[in-house]
Design a protein that fits this description.
Layout (H helix, E strand, L loop, with lengths): L7 H13 L3 H14 L4 H13 L3 H15 L5 H14 L2 H14 L3 H17 L3 H4 L1
Helix pairs in contact: 1-2, 2-3, 3-4, 4-5, 5-6, 5-7
Length: 135
């Protein structure tokens, strides 16, 4: 990082190591610097959201998760699906989660992936006491 301060990959790798070691506040510093250098990096935005989530700052986590989805611009269903799962498990926002889950299905119409996601989504709903919605 000291040698190549504008190299985003180095900052992300260092931040990832910090995350794995539970040093979320320090990871955020490096991820925010990387995001400033490369503001269209949806993976970086997502990782910032994950760190804030680990620090129990749900508002900041939500802000960066949404940035990742916005940057991704419907090219990959991963962020929509993962966000839907987070909305349910961390926020209890079932209706909002459903809209992102459906958006993920529209983005990625591959039948195998859809079935796997539907199954995981149903398990999440069931685990959170929404048995009727899981059927």
């Amino acid at each position: 990082i000291a040698i190549q301060p504008n190299e985003v990959d180095h900052r992300e790798q260092f931040a990832s190591m910090l995350q794995r070691n539970g040093k979320y506040s320090q990871a955020i510093i490096h991820l925010l610097e990387a995001f400033e250098i490369e503001p269209m990096n949806c993976e970086c935005a997502w990782d910032i959201g994950e760190c804030y989530d680990e620090l129990n700052d749900k508002d900041k986590a939500n802000e960066y998760f949404l940035k990742a989805i916005e940057i991704d611009n419907e090219e990959d269903a991963f962020y929509c699906y993962e966000y839907a799962q987070w909305l349910i498990e961390s926020m209890g926002m079932y209706e909002s989660a459903k809209s992102y889950f459906l958006k993920a299905i529209q983005i990625e119409p591959n039948t195998d992936i859809i079935e796997a996601w539907r199954y995981r989504y149903a398990k999440i709903l069931k685990r959170n006491g929404k048995h009727k919605d899981a059927i």
